[in-house]
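Human: You know discrete backbone vocabularies at least as well as I do. Show me how you would write down a chain together with its backbone fold. No explanation is needed for now; the record alone will do.

Assistant:
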Amino acid sequence: MYNPTRAFIRHTVNVPLEIKVVPDAPSQSNEGVNISEGGLAFTVDECLPDNSIIELRIATVTPPFEAQARVAWCRKEGSKFLVGVQFLDSNDAFQSRMVQQVCAIEQYRQEQTRKGRTLDSQQAASEWISKYAGRFPVA
């Protein structure tokens, strides 16, 4: 039985994410929850309509990542809604995975700093890749 919420292997990351329903909805700030081979999921206060087109923006990287996606599903989770979207362009899906990895490496570096370890970006990337890169899907 096909389950659209499990169509892809997804990976948890916390990345600030701006979303806007095309064409006229105001932007919302949300946390990216997980990433998959073809899309990602994030939480919102109100469910987004299935098949609506949204614009995504991750501003924590340079240049900012921007892409369009289609809402595949929405379900209630606690006091919020978890929304799954599929990228309209496979290149956007690939770029999003790279952005998510860069953000995950920076999170790892910051976690290590809180633990009293000082790592530069290169050291953090090397450690993170050896520990976690296998969890991210390949194109």
In short: Residues 91-132 form one domain.
